[in-house]
Specification:
Blueprint (H helix, E strand, L loop, with lengths): L1 H61 L1
Length: 63
């Protein structure tokens, strides 16, 4: 009976540990995805800004 109780506690502890590891991996994965998405959006924004700036500059040069 005592052995069963300790085994149950151990099992719950292992389950909690696995959940914690899974949560950490999932959060890390989510953060990486979010970071890449933010970086990609920033690149697009920068590219469009640079393009518009370059077009204005070319217009000034032509004029």
């Amino acid at each position: 009976f005592f052995f069963l109780d300790t085994f149950d506690i151990l099992l719950s502890f292992v389950f909690f540990f696995f959940c914690l590891i899974f949560f950490l991996i999932f959060s890390l994965f989510f953060v990486i995805i979010f970071f890449y998405l933010f970086f990609f959006l920033f690149l697009i924004f920068f590219f469009f800004f640079f393009l518009t700036f370059f077009m204005r500059f070319m217009k000034l040069l032509i004029l």
